[in-house]
Amino acid sequence: MGRGRNRRRVDRTAEEVARGRKRTLRWALGLVLALSALAAGAAGARWLSGSGALRIRDIRFEGLSRAGADELIAFSPVKVGDSFFLADVDAMERGLSRHPWVRRAEVRHALLPPSLVVHVEERRPIALVELSGLYLAGLYLAMYLDLALRRGLG
User: Fold this and answer.
1) What is the pLDDT of residues 144-154, one digit of tens each?
2) Whole-prediction pTM
3) What does the domain layout of the chain look like in residue ranges?
4) Of 4, 59, 60, 87, which one's alpha carbon is 20 to 30 angstroms from that of 121?
């Protein structure tokens, strides 16, 4: 044994040594399990994002009578084949609302198969106006350029 203050060695009992080993083993096992779960989650997310399993397969439109689905898809920043969970549906709603016939668009996810369902509320024309070209005047006095001729309403 050492000499002087605080140099006394205290031997631990076999029970205390075993308890310490068990505690260390439990801690190491928990750490290994947590890291394994994290690695499996990262690998799964990478596989899902790389595969076509979570890609938008279809964009369906409800409530269309004047606007065409192809016309609306041209206004949309979200396309078929984009990531299902990363699709910006708010930007899609804003983009679709720029179409002259669309008053409001509401986009929601449909899980099986991964697709988007777009409910469109169209504007209703109330008058046909001749101003060096045919225009449709809506309820809110919005003017729709040449839509009467393109849709055969004029």
Assistant:
1) 544 545 555 54
2) 0.56
3) 11-50, 53-122, 124-154
4) 87
The residue with greater pLDDT, 150 or 124, is: 124
Each residue's pLDDT tens digit, 85-102: 888 889 999 999 888 888
Compute CA distances 33 → 22, 42, 88, whole Å.
16, 14, 35
How far is Cα 149 from Cα 142, in angstroms, rounded to an integer?
17
Phi, psi of 68 (to 5 degrees): -95, 155
Q: What is the pLDDT of residue 10?
A: 74
